[in-house]
């Protein structure tokens, strides 16, 4: 080998070492960045020596797709569980202390005490106060649910805006990848940006991808709707300023296709979770409150002993009173408008003893046959609360139980839903963490490996430097001999 060839090889080695050192240093610098994929300089043999021909970016397409799916599922289940937690506190309070079931239990106790001493006006007032608490729990529960639905609707609007913004950012990153790929430039940074944006998109909607020529990427949702192809497709939603009980809000459309939003569909993505909270869980919960309200109006209705007149609303009434809501028919929003009968409510100038005596609606018949010691009607009210009645099956729990059992079952239904959401959220979060860790192991930076590679490059640099020094000494000797 000639001295000039040896010198050229050493110089080539120094250039390659410098370039490789830069790549490794960048890897070390980005070690804490979860959206960075490890780079490696690829060498090719030349005559003489070797040269850097490419920078290879670590990829694992299968793991990346699994991670996208896990991110969507974790985002959806996490948002659903957090929403249920807020909803439960708003409607039932801490440890269900302000739930209708708790209020009905206190009303039963107050009625029992009043029935034991029906002449005691203080006990009559206590019973009325317990009834007010029942009304308040239903009214405030309805308000909490409808407020929650409006907030969820607004959150959907913000998520749709954010998703459209991400799709716009994705287009810029995708265009940079296509142009760089077509011109033969290193597009590793652009690919990192594109993948990072794709992960954020997956937090809102479940996605799958297809890569075409020049690294051009197409995104479709889990439902098969096109989300991005060359340009972003429209994601549209019309927020509502108010939502009526029992009626669903507006849908989210992806390229004209409505986004699925049922718990049965897996709740992948935050938008689907918000839609399910707004139209599914809250609507069922509202229906249960409405059925409890109907059950109260029915249980405390005044019964005509002569059967000459239909039953009329007694202690509890509603805008449709004094008629009784039809059995087995859901009256949407009834829990928000149920009220105490003004004829009995002392806060409205009523007479509390009508709870004991009857005749709240000016009925001509006489119920009280025992004067101030009469307790038959009070006892009957307690028995009706514990008697089996029919409820609308649309509300999601047993349609044939007592009112007290139904109100307790409503809490059980919600707690079961919340616990299932909690378990699902934990499982999906764990899956997202595992797939993310597996992806990082395949494509992320290992500091120990990079430092070991830096040490090898240092040795290569030293060897090249020694060759150059030896060539220099030989050339110097030749020149001296001449």
* Unreliable runs: none
Overall form: rod-shaped
Taken as a percent bin, the fraction of beta residues is 5-15%
Structural class: alpha+beta
Main pleated-sheet profile:
4 strands, antiparallel
Number of helices: 11
Look at the structure and give the mean pLDDT.
Answer: 88
**Count of domains:** 2
Q: Over all CA atoms, what is the radius of gyration?
A: 36 Å
Describe the structure in your own words:
- With 482 residues, the chain is an alpha+beta fold.
- The chain folds into two domains: 3-58 and 448-481, no CATH class; 65-295 and 403-431.
- It has helices at 3-29, 61-92, 100-116, 121-183, 188-204, 270-299, 334-337, 354-357, 376-386, 403-443, 447-481, and strands at residues 39-45, 50-57, 207-211, 217-221, 226-229, 231-232, 235-236, 253-254, 257-258, 316-317, 339-340, 388-390, 400-402.
- The strands form five sheets. A four-stranded antiparallel beta sheet has the order 3-4-5-6. Strands 7-8-9 form a three-stranded antiparallel beta sheet. It has a two-stranded antiparallel sheet with strand order 1-2.
- A hairpin with a 4-residue loop joins β4 and β5.
- α2 runs antiparallel to α4, α3 runs antiparallel to α4 (121-183) and α4 (121-183) packs antiparallel against α6 (270-299).
- The longest helix has 63 residues, at 121-183.
- The two termini are 21 Å apart.
Summarize the topology.
Layout: H1 3-29, E1 39-45, E2 50-57, H2 61-92, H3 100-116, H4 121-183, H5 188-204, E3 207-211, E4 217-221, E5 226-229, E6 231-232, E7 235-236, E8 253-254, E9 257-258, H6 270-299, E10 316-317, H7 334-337, E11 339-340, H8 354-357, H9 376-386, E12 388-390, E13 400-402, H10 403-443, H11 447-481
Antiparallel strand pairs: 1-2, 3-4, 4-5, 5-6, 7-8, 8-9, 10-11, 12-13
Helix pairs in contact: 1-11, 2-4, 2-5, 2-6, 2-10, 3-4, 3-9, 3-10, 4-5, 4-6, 6-10
């Amino acid at each position: 080998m000639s001295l000039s060839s040896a010198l050229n090889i050493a110089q080539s080695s120094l250039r390659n070492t410098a370039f490789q050192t830069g790549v490794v240093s960048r890897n070390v610098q980005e070690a804490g960045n979860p959206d960075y994929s490890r780079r490696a300089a690829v060498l090719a043999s030349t005559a003489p020596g070797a040269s850097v021909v490419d920078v290879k970016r670590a990829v694992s397409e299968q793991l990346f797709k699994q991670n996208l799916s896990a991110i969507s599922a974790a985002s959806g289940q996490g948002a659903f569980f957090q929403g249920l937690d807020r909803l439960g506190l708003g409607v039932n309070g801490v440890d269900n202390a302000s739930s209708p079931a708790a209020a009905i239990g206190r009303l039963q106790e107050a009625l029992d005490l009043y029935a034991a001493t029906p002449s005691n006006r203080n006990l009559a007032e206590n019973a009325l106060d317990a009834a007010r608490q029942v009304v308040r729990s239903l009214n405030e529960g309805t308000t909490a649910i409808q407020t929650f639905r409006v907030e969820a609707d607004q959150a959907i609007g913000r998520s749709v805006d954010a998703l459209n913004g991400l799709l716009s950012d994705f287009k810029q990153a995708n265009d940079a990848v296509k142009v760089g790929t077509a011109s033969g430039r290193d597009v590793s940074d652009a690919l990192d940006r594109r993948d990072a944006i794709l992960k954020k998109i997956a937090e809102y909607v479940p996605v799958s991808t297809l890569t075409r020529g020049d690294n051009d990427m197409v995104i479709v949702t889990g439902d098969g709707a096109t989300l991005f192809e060359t340009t972003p497709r429209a994601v549209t939603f019309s927020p509502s300023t108010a939502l009526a009980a029992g009626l669903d809000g507006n849908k989210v459309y992806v390229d004209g296709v409505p986004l699925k939003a049922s718990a049965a569909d897996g709740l992948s993505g935050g938008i689907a979770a918000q839609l399910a909270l707004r139209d599914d869980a809250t609507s069922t919960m509202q229906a249960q409150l409405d059925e409890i309200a109907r059950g109260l109006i029915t249980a405390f209705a005044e019964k005509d002993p002569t059967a000459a007149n239909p039953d009329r609303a007694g202690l509890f009434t509603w805008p449709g009173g004094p008629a009784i809501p039809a059995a087995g028919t859901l009256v949407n929003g009834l829990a928000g408008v149920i009220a105490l009968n003004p004829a009995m409510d002392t806060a409205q100038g009523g007479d509390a003893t009508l709870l004991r005596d009857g005749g709240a609606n000016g009925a001509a018949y006489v119920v009280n046959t025992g004067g101030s010691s009469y307790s038959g009607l009070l006892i009957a009210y307690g028995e009706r609360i514990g008697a089996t009645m029919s409820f609308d099956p649309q509300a999601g729990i047993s349609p044939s139980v007592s009112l007290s059992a139904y109100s307790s079952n409503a809490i059980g239904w919600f707690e079961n839903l919340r616990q299932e959401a909690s378990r699902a959220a934990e499982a999906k979060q764990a899956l997202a963490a595992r797939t993310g860790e597996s992806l990082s192991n395949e494509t992320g930076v290992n500091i120990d490996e990079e430092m070991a590679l830096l040490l090898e490059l240092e040795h290569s640099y030293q060897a090249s430097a020694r060759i150059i020094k030896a060539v220099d000494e030989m050339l110097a000797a030749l020149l001296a001999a001449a």
